[in-house]
Design goal:
Layout: E1 5-8, H1 13-29, E2 33-38, H2 54-58, H3 60-76, E3 82-87, H4 91-98, E4 104-108, H5 123-131, E5 135-138, E6 147-151, H6 160-172, E7 175-182, H7 186-191, H8 197-218, E8 224-230, H9 233-241, E9 246-250, E10 252-253, E11 259-260, H10 263-271, E12 276-279
Parallel strand pairs: 1-2, 1-4, 2-3, 4-5, 6-7, 6-9, 7-8, 9-12
Antiparallel strand pairs: 5-12, 10-11
Helix pairs in contact: 1-3, 4-5, 9-10
């Protein structure tokens, strides 16, 4: 069986929209959907101390959340294969474990209970790095717009974010917009140096095209456009998100195999107007 799309829910409105997005994604990619709710019940917040029947005895509300999410999916996508899991553990650990062999992990941009603040801190991004799957933060209304946006920094090696973005665009039959935004050096601007922005843009565009050229050969039907411009990456990516189905960002490798998102990633997650995929590793 193909790797599932895993979605976390706490029963909130944003979580419901994440479940809808994940169901559509699973149907589009012909993958099963796995819905997870974490029951953070003191003192059983460490799995090895939780009795085997802890979830059954201590979280009837959790079962209700999962039943409602499953009902919602079956009404929306009746032919989709759906499984659920109620896990007695901290939310980050539950999501990391359940998504270990997933295709991707999907969450709402905010929620209540155990999910509050999860996405905008570093914990969820470490979870995504440990599980080696893309993390999708569902924002916006989810309207189909026919475009996937990926942010690319020419100072970095071509990463798995580009690969994921090409794959996402191909699956949707969407255009792929590669955005590279760069800023002038403050020292150069203050010193009054003459800067040929057009020449620098052309040089950077050539490097961007070179970076994705192998993927373009692999996905020849994907229509690719380049936005190489002077501006703040967060501002430009958020602007592009207004007309996009998905924005894709790369996470950077740190020690011990952990992937983390820098200030640009956090800024886009906070302000984008469509779902955001954070990709550390993608296969």
């Amino acid at each position: 069986m193909s790797a599932p799309i895993v979605v976390g829910t706490d029963g909130s409105g944003p979580a419901g929209r994440a479940v809808d997005w994940a169901a559509d994604e699973a149907a589009m990619r012909h993958r099963p959907l796995h819905i997870v709710h974490a029951a953070e019940i003191w003192p059983y917040q460490v799995r090895r101390f939780a009795p085997p029947d802890a979830a059954e005895r201590l979280s009837p509300a959790g079962h209700a959340v999962l039943l409602e999410a499953e009902r919602r999916v079956r009404e929306r996508r009746p032919d989709l294969r759906v499984t659920t899991a109620l896990v007695v553990n901290t939310t980050p650990d539950a999501l990391r474990d359940e998504a270990e062999k997933a295709f991707e992990l999907v969450l709402g941009h905010r929620g209540h209970g155990g999910f509050t603040g999860l996405l905008l801190g570093s914990v969820s991004l470490r979870v995504a790095g440990h599980t080696a799957v893309p993390l999708v933060v569902v924002r916006g209304e989810g309207d189909a717009r026919g475009e996937v946006v990926v942010g690319y920094d020419v100072a970095e090696e071509p990463g798995d974010a580009l690969k994921y973005a090409f794959d996402a665009a191909a699956a949707r039959g969407a255009r792929l917009r590669v955005v590279h935004a760069w800023q002038l050096s403050v020292n150069m601007a203050e010193a009054g140096y003459a800067i040929d922005e057009e020449r620098l843009n052309d040089e950077r565009r050539a490097r961007v095209i070179e970076a994705y050229a192998p993927l373009y050969e692999r996905y020849p039907l994907v229509d690719v456009v380049n936005d190489v411009l002077v501006g703040h990456p967060v501002s430009e990516l958020c602007r592009a998100s207004r007309t996009a189905d998905l924005v894709v960002l790369g996470a950077h490798a740190h020690r011990w195999g952990i992937f983390r998102v820098g200030s640009v990633g956090h800024g886009v997650i906070h302000h984008a107007e469509c779902p955001v995929a954070v990709v550390g590793r993608f296969t």
